[in-house]
Amino acid sequence: NFFSNSTIQRQSKLRTDENWIQEKMTDNKTRYVLMNRNEIVVIPTNKRHLTLLNVNYEMIEKYLPANNRNFVFLGEQDKQCIFAVHLEKLVLAEIVKLHQEARVIHAFPGALKLRQDEASLYSHAVGMLSWQRSQRFCSVCGNATVIKDAGYKLTCSNHKCSTHKGAVSASYPRVDPTIISAVISPDQSRTVLARQPRFPPGMFSCIAGFVEPGESVEACCVREVEEEVGLRVHDVSYLSSQFWPMPASLMLGCLATADGELSVDSAELEDGRWFTREEVVDMMCGRHAGGLFVPPVQAIAHQLLQTWV
Length: 309
Fold this sequence. Notes:
Strands 1, 2, 3, 4, 5, 6 and 7 form a seven-stranded mixed beta sheet that branches. Strands 10, 11, 12, 13, 14 and 15 form a six-stranded mixed beta sheet that branches. A two-stranded antiparallel ribbon has the order 8-9. It folds into three domains: 12-133, Alpha-Beta Complex (Nucleoside Triphosphate Pyrophosphohydrolase), CATH 3.90.79; 135-174, no CATH class; 176-308, Alpha-Beta Complex (Nucleoside Triphosphate Pyrophosphohydrolase). The protein is built from eight helices and 15 strands. The chain is α+β, with helices and mostly antiparallel strands.
């Protein structure tokens, strides 16, 4: 699945080797991927596709954050190390001026135009850097956190903090498990699609929601579908997963069976309907008479529907 098919070797065993990480950070063969929150620096390859701008240490040395904050070691590819770094907007603008074709774009939907391997790099980077920014201070004592293990671990800078005495003495990257399900009628002729108010006009997608503590994927699927459209599903089966970097959801794709009239939760959804197979095919191909459509092929919702049709 898109965002989840990286060819990079993450080299997790080397993250704790501070000397090796420092050596690779300053090696001019190393590539840096540049970001600012939900913005990335890219170079157009043609009208439809983009590639990430990669710079070396010499080009960004003076801009790198103090104490290695807001950076992460992504791994190695073809014996070349790759890091991602979060930089302020003005810094990105200054770097872009040095590259005639480079430009700063919003990562969504811009990242959908990247090659799949680069999209996976982006999802890795944004998930890690978003987590770092959200955990700048210790949740127990309020002191600043310190980055360890090449960006994959945060500890409290106050050595007297109780976090250094318990079983859990550090913060690790956050990933939010989320179910997304194609709900299909028993005769396989119809599926339920819904839309949230934040969706682009005309877009419908599969039912989705966060897995809660103490809940299995199957139980979450049953609960979310019942809460959002009033149907009781059965025969829940897992299909595949996708990391969705908005900023760190692990989408667990399921198929489920249900039938009956919908009771749409207006607090959650703007609309929800049964759609026939023919309607969904038209929506996937961009030829629906009412201008309705489903998420793009890069999204797991599209893949779930593709499996059904």
